[in-house]
Amino acid sequence: MSEPITPTISTRICTHMNDDHAEAVLLYAKTFGNTPEATAAQMVAIDPQGMDLSAQIDDTTRPLRIEFDRPLKDAEDAHHTLIEMLKQVRQK
Fold it and tell me: Residue limits of the DUF2470 domain (predicted)?
């Protein structure tokens, strides 16, 4: 059984995504956050309903909330959902 998405798990996921998958986080901001002009983005938090990003647009940092299409069950579900979202972006 996977771990529930607690604040500690959220921090772990965000750190991993920002350190190892910055390009994917930027693609989430551009596509799902409707900010194609973003030049950088960071994942700030994730919970069962969605994720909070911080997007860099010109000289401004803008907060973004991206809702998931369904509530996530746990950290493993978050992992699979983020991968599926990235696949959707790359297929376009």
Answer: 10-85
